[in-house]
Each structure stands twice: as structure tokens, then as C-alpha cells.
Records
---
Amino acid sequence: MARNIAYVVLIVGFVLANSSPASGATSPVRKTSAAGACLGVWQPGAPWDMTGLARFESAVGKSMAIVMWYQGWGAANAPFDATILRAVADRGSIPLITWEPWDYTGGVDQPTYANARIVAGNFDAYITSWAEGLKAHGRPVLLRFAHEMNYRSYPWSVGANGNTADSFVAAWRHVHEIFSRLGARNVAWVWSPGVKHDGTTPFASVYPGDQYVDWLALDGFNGGSALPWGGWLPFQDIFAPSHADLAQINGDKPMMIAETASVEQGGSKAAWISDALLTQLPGSFPRVKAFVWFNENRAGEADWRVDSTPESLAAYATAAANPYYGPCAPVGGLGRRAFFPIIGAGPQGFLQRSNGSSKSSSAETASATARRSSSFSRQSAS
């Protein structure tokens, strides 16, 4: 999780939608100018255990349009499980699956999960099982594959296990092509680097190409004085430079903040939240259609939860109640123009899609939590 704290807020500012008829043909992307955003959350335990998520939503006074979680290929819960997808969808939320090719217990140096082995087909059976399962699910899914590839924090990262920028792109395309070939058209692909720092891999070199990506996303955190990197940084300082770089890569696709949060130490977290949600996103980041909060208290690191103090909780709840943020409700169905959520009463869907393209256990929760810790370290390492 190091700097991989993914909090996704779906914002409808520059709305993009694409229909996908059942025949398999695709219609041109439709652009709209509806303004607004949807909110999402990573809540430890969910979706296997929804208790914490229910508490979060009760505290902030809003149902989350997006529920994000981490799914490792080498985890005990790695096999596709339709029940957890249904649990998320049936509550009116869209799954945002951070799909990680690694064993979270093994650290960065895992040659088993090198890009070259993915391209060579060593994981094709596993990838196929997920593609078939998600297709059968038939409802909207956001798939965030191999995030923060620009940090040397994971086995798929550039610089780890013999990986290069080209090998990452090849691995991404290989996985995407399996889904495309099997017709998993309800899956939208989220390309999600971490915000840039000195020494990180340039975004453009690891971008798979417009036909392989539906959403552009960023991860970034305000570690304040609680962590040894960065210092107290406003939302704009964290995201604006990287947001500008993504806009140069593609001028149309919707963007999301896939992981973000702030600590209390070093400034006013409540003011940071208010500024991010009520000033920066509506005013300076109109293409951001989703905003996901990393709602975890990491022992020995930082308390990223929105309710770390009553003031911070009040700031988030006030922002979430603003008409800019929803309501967001899934509409339509597979192959229909607006089958992803819409904001407010407008007719536009916010999801851009490319052409051609329940059991709860302590082990599963621990697995997801451990993954998070690995990513935060990279914010300092890079």
C-alpha cells in the first residue's frame, strides 16, 4: 500500500460513455459535459465482510458508489468468487478490483510474477478463469490491473524481476487481450500509476495504449509529519503535476483518484479533505470522475481513516452531502449505453470503455492489509 492507498471517487465532469451492443459492435464514444462525482472507498475487510463498510457509510451519511479491494493472484482467496461480486453489486455499488499479480507475503523480488512470465502464458488459465467469471457476472466492473507500476514496489514494477517499461506494456496487453477475446465487455480497465516523484518511471513509457485503457487513475497521499517522506502537502500539490502529465497522454478518457488519504499530523486534515472535495476536484480537476478514500488505520504507520477525528469526519460528511457527489446509481445493463452509474438526474453515463475490448476470513483480510503496507513504502523509496 505504501503509496498505493487507493481511494476512488467517480466524478462526472467531462462525461464519456460508449455503448456496446450485444452483437459485439461498438458505437462511437459520446462526450458530455455533466458535472459531478461519485465517491468510493477501500474499507479493510470488504467485500468479504461488509460490517466495516456499513459503519463507514453510516458515519459519513452516504452509500459508496464504488467499493475497492485488493486481489492478489497468489493469495488464498485468489480464485474467482462470484459471490463477493454479487454482494457488492446487489448493494448498488460498482466493484473496483485492484488485481495484483503477486504473492503479497513475498515482497517485490518474486521472479515467478515477472512480466515476461505473464506474456509467456504462464498465468493464462488463471486469467481466463477471471475473464470468464467477470463476463458471467454481467454487471459493471472496474479492473485496476498491476497498479503503481512506475514505483519499484511490486513484482510487476519496472526495474523489478527483470521488468522493463516495454515488458509491462506487453503484459498488460496480453491480459487485456484474453478478456477481449472472451468477450468480457462489462469490464473497464483502470490504468493506475502512482503520482510521480524523482526517480519514478515516466508515465508515457508504461502506458499500454488508448485501445487497452478505459480510465486513467492516480494514487497519492498526504503523509504530513507522520511519515518520513513528503511533509504536509495540499491535494493540488500531490496530484496536479501528475494529472497534467496524464492529460498529455490522453485528452478524453475519464480519470479517477484511485487511492488517497491524509494524516492528521502536520496540518489540518479536516481542511485538507474540504479543500480536496469542495475546491480542488470541482474547480481544478474536472476530468476526475471517481475519488476513492483509503480508509485504514495502519498500526505503526498512520491513521488514514476519515473519522480519525470528529472534525475530519465532519469535513468528509459535509463534502459527501454536496450535490456534486451523486447520487450515483447503476442503470441499464450489459451492452447498453449508460450501464455504468450516472450522476444526479442527467442521462449520461460516466464510464468510458475502449473498443474491443463470501466467505469472510481473517486470512483474507490480513492478505489485503499486508498488500497495502508494501505500497506505502514506495512513496518514500521513490
Note: The chain has one domain: 8-381.
---
Amino acid sequence: MKFGGHFLNKKQDQEYYIEKLEKENLELKERIRYYESKFHKRSDCMKPNLIETGKRIKSIRSNLGMTMEQFAILTDSSNTSAVNNWERGYNLPNKTKLKKIAILGNTTTDWIKWGTLEEYITSYLIGIGYELYIKDFPEIPHKVFKDIQEKYSDTFSLDKDYELLDSIIKNIFTKYYSKDFEDYRDIEVKPDLGLTDDNKNIKMIGQRIRKIRKKENITLEEFGKLFSPTADKAVISNWENGKNLPNSERIKKIAEIGGVSELYLMTGVDSSVAESMYFLSEVALDALERLSIEEVNRIIESFAGYLNVISKIDDPDKREISLNAICQLSLLDKMG
């Protein structure tokens, strides 16, 4: 193929078109981002909480001292049932009626839909996937709000047009608080992370502590209050993220809360498995003496392999594999 006075071989030809396609793809993404920001199309499709919206509409009507019938007339609604449906959170008024309600309440349509800007920030962060994080750290939306108030109050009217602030909310959260969120998220410890065995074990203990807390469906703060003396949520977060370990008394308490053994909490191996290992060593000792060294080694290797797999199953109920089954698997390996 002749191009620009040069002959390109097949590889160069492919690289040229790949580069061209990548460039076009990048330009297309940039155009999509531009139109999304221009027309405020929101990928998260966040919707107002209708129950809370209804409460705000009811508060406007109550503050005006109006009956539902009077309110319906002023908002051009067909009857009182429409007002009743709004206030009970069954549906949202259309844009025109929403504007009329805002005028009557001397407020904005954004406040009716979302509440204060701080409440909107909370809804937005929950809407883009940070619900559990916000539940454990409810002060974060307030911090984001204060940052916006300090930096953008001269640029934006902070009592309306909340959706114009979406990208700013996300940027502030990402810049200042995403690192904390990364620490908070579940950690998957993989063998190739280059961690020492001690570090791996501490992180796995943290995962088991977090699993117990989540199974109880309680926040870091609520979990901390189960201890005496109580533990701050930052302390609990450090345990769960493998930054440090609880003391022996607290390990005992966590095991009690989770209905597991302390051995399981610290090692991931349930006591029934440990007892089975001891039982096997006692019962099988005579039988093992009658086997060749090669056969014994093969059984030990396969048995250890099965126990290793079982020990990595977090759910104790799913690790209740009988000793007899393990022995049968090991014997099959021996015969193979």
C-alpha cells in the first residue's frame, strides 16, 4: 500500500488504522460528555424521594393555613385527591404545578424536590453508589456542602439549580474524600499482592470482622457501641481495613457477636476442621504406617490441599464438610 510517498508494511498499516480509530473514539467520547453537560442528562437517573417531597408540599400548605380544596384551586388541580396524592408521596406534581407550589411557599422547585442543597448532596452521592459509605460517615455531605459554599457561592445560586452542581459535587468528593472511601471499601487480598504472610492475615481478619458487622446490618458507629469501653468508628474502620488488630478481649466479643469461634476469626479455620485434623491423625496413624512413603505423602498432600480450600471459605456453614468425605477424596487420590 502506497501512502504519503512511503510503502507501509501490513503491521504499520494496522497500527495506523488502530491509532486513527482510537482518536475518533476519544473525540466521540468528548462530544458525548459535552452534550451530557450541556443538557444535564444524568446517567444515574436520580429521582426525588416522593415521601420527603410530599412532606415538604404538605408543610407549605399547612403554613399557609389552607385546606386541600383551597390548595387545589390555587395550583389549578382538578380536585383534592391530586393534592392528597402529592402529600402522601404517591406522585410528583408536573413542572407547572410544581412552580405554582414553589411560588405559594416562597421557595424553589429544587427545595420542594430535594430539600436543602446539603440534602441534595446526600441524595446525589447515594444515587451514584456511595449509600453504605454515607450511612457510616454521615458528616461527608456536610463537608462537601461547606466546600461548595466557600468556593462557589459567588458563582452559583445555592438555593436553586442544584443539578448544575452535580459535576462539582462529584469532583469535590473525588478530590478530598475518595481516598477515605478506598480505605473503607472491601479489600480483596490476592496471593500476588506482594504482602507478607502477617499482613495478609491481618487483612483477612479485617475482612471477617467486616463480614460479621455487615451480617448484623449495623454501621461502624453502632458496632463500636457494642464494646466496653466503646470503640470509635475510626478504630473499627482500621480493624476492617487491616491497619491494626483488636485486643484479645475485643476479638472474643467480635466472635461472640458473629456467632463464630475465635479460632475462625483469627485464622479462617473453623474449630470443627481443626478437631477433624487431630482426629484423623489419631485414627489413621496405624493405617498410615502400613502404607509406603510415596502413598503417605500423596495422601498428606491431597488432604492438606482439601483443607486449604475449605479454610478459605468464609461461611462456616458451607465449610461443614465431613471428615469422611475428605478421607474419601484423599483415598481416591491415592488410588489414582
Note: Residues 2-39 form one domain.
---
Amino acid sequence: PTRKGKQKQSPKKEGEQNESPQNKSTNGSNDTEIQKMNPITVKLFDANHIHHRFLDKGITVGKHSATAGTDCCFQQYNIPWYNCVSFSLDNTFVNMDKHNSLMSRAKEKNKHICIRRYPCHIIHNTASKASAEFAQETGSDLDDFCIDVSYWFAKSMKRKARLEEYCQLCNQNYKTDIDHVSTRWLSLEMATYRILKLFVSLESYFSCETGSQTRFQHLKKAFLCSITEVYLMFFQLIFPLFTNLNKRLQREEPVIYLVYQEVQKFLKNTLGKFVTAEAIVQGGNLDKQLDDAHIFNGSITRAMLTKGPILCAEDYQTMRDEEIPNHVYKEATFVENVKADRQKKEFYCMDLIWGYLTTMKESALISLPRFPYLGKMAKLILRLPHSNANAEWVFGLVCQNKTAFCDSLSLEGTLSSLLTVKV
């Protein structure tokens, strides 16, 4: 790795970022040092693929915002702001769309820029708020409960051995408790499920064992409470509603075109589970709505309806199958959700499909692109981030490399170069 940030990018990659539209994502990974690290990732279209890459770290000091650090990084690599079609910020005010000064500063640089919020964080924060209200009403905090169970048995072979004995006594297979980390959104469901699987054994353990530690007393009280298992079953029932959408948003391939559909489905399922029939408000006056028998269809409408199946088929597929080679479809196909009856769901990576469509020519004699404007528009849409999963992975590497034992790494040189090599 090099020690100067300017030497990390090859001329080819730097040129791509100067010329092609892209999405930028940034996040403040630390707030305890003098210098604040703002890792910047780039999402761009390269070689018929959407790639997410680490660019550099925008260093800010004091009250300077993440936008200022990003602007300095852009100037360093000669990247114009008008090439930044969207800007993602992992910021509470951005996600809440409240007191959003970062958005206004980015708009000053490029008034057409699209400020992207992080739906994974929004869903997580909303669910956490609801869970906090539930904990306040019931006195049972699921996060604290799962963490206490994990910490009680962690790094204690003696306690694990005693739990295994209780599992054998209760005719259950011993399984290690799953650690729950509040910043890992999917771990709470797995931790809850594991506790429910071992609930009888855990209940026997804490009712028979003795201990004066505060954590032990809290767990003993919780497991002796008859309603605790009911609370866990309630959370186990509603978790898939949130985690399934979260998993879809964490796909590596670009699925921005599915976000609206998936969020609408999520909201519909949420209302179906949590909104009672009494809370549904009756619609407006229906007297002005004609019955089907009184609706008159004109001749043009009737003619269009008779041609409906033919027109629908034409709208659904405007190109022949053979116009796109089989190897393109094969490379772009990925399988998901293999069911018990061995049925499979197939999806296409649309960046590969549109990468090929933009290379198609008018004909063998005319070398002009067949879809010049449509291809550019599709690539712009695919550059928009559907979540922050890839960016969070890069942000996590920052914390792993700059630790309390390696706190002397230069932010502008060594650490940034290490991240460039790793990513």
C-alpha cells in the first residue's frame, strides 16, 4: 500500500469516475477522535456491471460536515459534482428528513442531485422505537434480555456444561446461544429463536441454579415469569415481516426497481398484522359511483378491450427472445428461495441485461446504438442505491483496521491505502 492517497487510484479508474455518472455514499465512522473519518464509496457502471468501490476518506475536523470532507475528496480526484447523480448519507436527520443541512449543502453543489435515505436504517429505527414502547408498557426489553443470556454463558465453560446437563434432563439438544449485537439487525431474530428452542432447559437452569450477580437475578426473574415465553413467541411471529424486507434490501445486485414494490408489500402486511378492523375508517360517499350495469363503454373503448390480450402481449415483450443471446440470460440469472417442493424462483441481474442492450446496434450495416437514450436512463436508475449494505461493509472495515491497538495509523495515508487494497 502507498502512503499518499493520490497514488492509490489508477488513471483508468480515476478517469471513469471523472466521466461517468455515479452514486456516492458516506458515513461518519468515529466521533471520539480529533479527526472525523468519512469513508466514501462509489457506485458506478463499469464493464456491464454495477460495482461498489471504496474511493477514499473525507477527513473533517471540528464542526465541518461530511459534505465538506466529500467535496475535498472530489477536488483531490478532479471529480465534478454534476457527475454525482445521488448522494447517500448515513445520518439520522437525513433518514428522518428533518433539519437536513447535509442535503441542502449537497444541493448547493448539484441542484439535481438525488439524496438517498437508507431504508434498512429507517425500518430498523422504526421497529426499535416500537420495541422500546413495548418494553416500557410490559417491562420486558428483548434486546437487553438476549444480550444478558448471551453474556451469561459467554466465555464460561462451567456454565455451558451445566446448561448442557439441563438440556439432557429436559430431553433437548444443547445449542450454543447466539450473540445479539444491536447494530446487526438480523441477529435479534436468530437469538430469540435460539432462546425459544432452549427455553425449557434455560428455565430449569435459572430456577435451580444460584447466583448473586445482577445479571443472573434479572434472568432468573425473567425465566420464572410465565409471560416471558409468550413475549418471545410474539416477537418470533412478527420478526419475519421486518427481516425478510431487510434481507431483500441487502442484496448485492442492484434492485432499485423492486424497492417501491417491496416497501408497499411490507406496509400492507404491517397494516394487516397490527391495524384492527375497528381502526379502519369507512370510505367516502359511494352514491356518486355508478354500478357496473350503468357504465357505458363507447365503441372505441369496446374495440380496445377486444384487442386487450394482443396488446398486452405486445406491451409485455417488445423484443424477440432470440435478440438477446442465451449466454447473456444465463449469466444474468440467479436462483432464490428453493422451496421444499424443489420449485425455484429465477431473477435477472438487470445491470447485465442493460449492459448488453446498450451495446446493441441498429443493424449489421448501421453501427449506431439501438437504445442510446433508454440505455443511459436505465444505467442511471441502476446506479441509485437500494440500500446501504455494501457501504456498511466498507465502513465496518474502517473500525476493524483502526482500533485502540492501532490508533497511530495515518487517516490520510496508511489507513486509506489499506482500505483501498482490501476493497
Note: Strands lie at 22-26, 35-46, 49-61, 84-89, 114-116, 333-336, 345-348.
